[in-house]
Amino acid sequence: MSLGLVGRKIGMTRVFTEDGTSVPVTVVDVSNNRVTQIKTPATDGYTAVQVAFGTRRKSRVTQPLAGHYAKAGVAAGRVLKEFTVTGEDAAKVSLGGAVGIDLFQVGQMVDVTGTTQGKGFTGAIKRHHFSSNRATHGNSRSHNSPGSIGQNQDPGRVFPGKRMAGHYGAVKRTTQNLEIVRVDTERQLLLIKGAVPGSKGGDLIVRPSVKAGA
Hints:
- The protein is mainly β.
- It is about 10% helix and about 35% strand.
- The chain contains 3 helices and 12 strands; from the N terminus they run ββββαβαβββαββββ.
- The chain has helices at about 65-70, 85-90, 125-130; strands spanning about 5-15, 20-30, 35-40, 50-55, 80-85, 100, 110-115, 120, 165-170, 170-185, 190-195, 205-210.
- The two termini are about 15 Å apart.
């Protein structure tokens, strides 16, 4: 894996190319990413860089975590994310230092990870994208029902994993191969083409695409 950035989803907008084409983009704030720990094979058995993002009040930080931030000499963050990197990438950063937006460039392909929008408890039609039943011709109050869920007397039960109603959304998802359309260095914003998982204000992880060179 490669070193990435943790950010916050601002929302969606659009930008226009030189020929007037409208490109939908998601605006991601990746400001103030700071290094809280550098793991090495000698001490941890592998090489990784831990990054903090956002801010958190001192009253909301546990004492062990407060000591962890104090050791790195950085302010407490809302999100802690670890990136497994090579020794060369780890050597480019320093404990307590910042990881800037210059990590990415226009035209680069990235993978964006976030928590999808939660839909609560939903029916089988919406949760699993089933087709609904007929609206007329003898259909009585079963327009949006999943239909039969079992077989005959043998086996006489519903198998585990049957797609039925339940909790929908609010899961970790990654959208791959998204293009960076614009990099706003002054405001530390990434404009990424297309939609990314999550609601406005949600935390995101942006890293170089693993399939870009495939």
